[in-house]
Design brief:
It comes from Billgrantia endophytica. This protein has eleven helices and 19 strands.
Length: 414
């Protein structure tokens, strides 16, 4: 079944926005975000479970506030993300670090975050008063086509290193020791993610039995996939949670606190990048040009297998021709898709890019002087602008001309 048909209420919302604002813009669906969040949390009903939204997925304060009101905590990896959610009043935080400094750990701990480390050397950087620490493990059994896990991953420590770290934390008097694992991302088949979770549960049991370590929490990371492609199946979160529940019951009499750090699963399917066709070109191949570039959502040019569905509502039902969809950036990789069978639109027609609710605007940049589009949120019958369009002044406001003197005083030139 094709799950990429654009609902009428979304098209009506787009028409309302276009009546007042120019394209391109991002449009998110609040109802869809709430549905995804509730689906995940409900699957773990009856267990001590907390969902921490991965802020990097969609760091817009309006979206974060909505999730906070639903009970979400937040997964932060930088000080900016910590500051952003603390400014909203969030108190449930995890700081899932990668190559973090002593100062960053200290600030995150002072803000009440649970600290997650993924290397033995980072034990030396933990604040002495840190009482909640998790160890990120890389079991090294990720699928070969996945960019996150595997033996060469930048994330996580080996199980043997994690054993050593757990014993050192125990010796240092840290009683709240947690384990974390995220060896893959964006799997829609729950088999891989289930195996990761069960590996973590069984490893936790080993630490309890062999080292007398009190494992207080298990964090299964994120990585639950969404159906980017037509006819993709959705991740079966109910089956995933049931198998985790069974493994926990088998290995633990008292179940540790459980958590996940899902971002894409919560907001990914709930966004569209709304654009217009600027031209249809006949080179040796067919090309559709849009009034937005991949600078607005670089993941399509960063990840080799990244796919975002493209809809051309005004041309629906016409002959499909293998076509590239491109922006106007002076860069050969500025393509939303290549040789994809699409109907041929006309200049000015609407074009929608699907599933842009995660890792899209947050990865955007100003390469080639490209400006970020605004963001809108549809919530029932209301539509809100939740970020304005970026301007030339925004981009140039950082530029200064200051001389650095030997006495360390900085003097601005006239």
């Amino acid at each position: 079944m094709d799950n990429k048909i654009v609902p009428n209420h979304v098209l009506l919302a787009i028409d309302r926005i276009r009546a007042r604002f120019e394209t391109p813009f991002f449009l998110y669906n609040a109802a869809s975000i709430r549905t995804q969040y509730t689906m995940l949390v409900s699957a773990f009903d009856g267990l001590p479970f907390q969902q921490y939204f991965a802020v990097k997925a969609l760091p817009n304060p309006t979206i974060l506030r909505m999730l906070l009101d639903m009970g979400a905590g937040f997964d932060c990896a930088t000080m900016t993300e910590v500051q952003m959610v603390r400014a909203l009043g969030a108190e449930k935080l995890v700081f899932t670090s990668s190559n973090s400094s002593i100062e960053q750990f200290a600030i995150a701990e002072a803000e009440g975050a649970r600290l997650t480390i993924d290397d033995l050397h980072l034990l030396e950087r933990l604040p002495r008063r840190a009482t909640q620490t998790s160890l990120r493990i890389n079991f090294g059994n990720s699928c070969s086509d996945n960019i996150i896990g595997g033996a060469r991953s930048k994330f996580g420590m080996t199980p043997d290193q994690a054993r050593q770290a757990a014993m050192q934390l125990k010796a240092n008097g840290i009683t709240s020791i947690g384990l974390h694992c995220m060896d893959s991302a964006n799997h829609t088949d729950s088999t891989k993610k289930t195996r990761e979770a069960i590996d973590l549960i069984t490893f936790a049991r080993q630490l309890v039995d062999e080292g007398g370590v009190d494992i207080s929490s298990l964090n299964f990371g994120g990585g639950l996939g969404i159906p980017y492609r037509p006819n993709d199946t959705a991740f079966d979160v109910t089956d995933y949670a049931l198998k985790i529940r069974a493994a926990l019951t088998k290995y633990f009499y008292v179940i540790p606190d459980l958590s996940m750090e899902c971002g894409r699963f919560i907001t990914g399917p709930s966004g569209y990048l709304v654009t217009e066709v600027t031209g249809v070109y006949r080179k040796p191949h067919s090309v559709i040009g849009l009034n937005v570039s991949t600078a607005a959502m670089p993941r399509v040019s960063i990840y080799p297998n990244a796919y975002h569905h493209v809809s051309l509502p005004g041309a629906a039902g016409t002959e499909l021709i293998p076509t590239d969809v491109v922006g106007s950036m002076c860069e050969s990789m500025d393509k939303f898709c290549e040789a994809r069978p699409l109907p041929m639109p006309h200049q000015g027609d609407l074009c929608l890019i699907h599933d842009v609710g995660a890792h899209c605007i947050s990865m955007s940049n100003n390469y080639n002087g490209m400006l970020r589009p605004p963001e809108f949120l549809m919530d029932n019958s209301s539509i809100y602008m939740i970020s304005r369009a970026e301007s030339f002044q925004d981009v140039t406001s950082r530029f200064i001309n200051m001389e650095v003197k030997e006495n360390d005083k900085i003097v601005e030139k006239a």
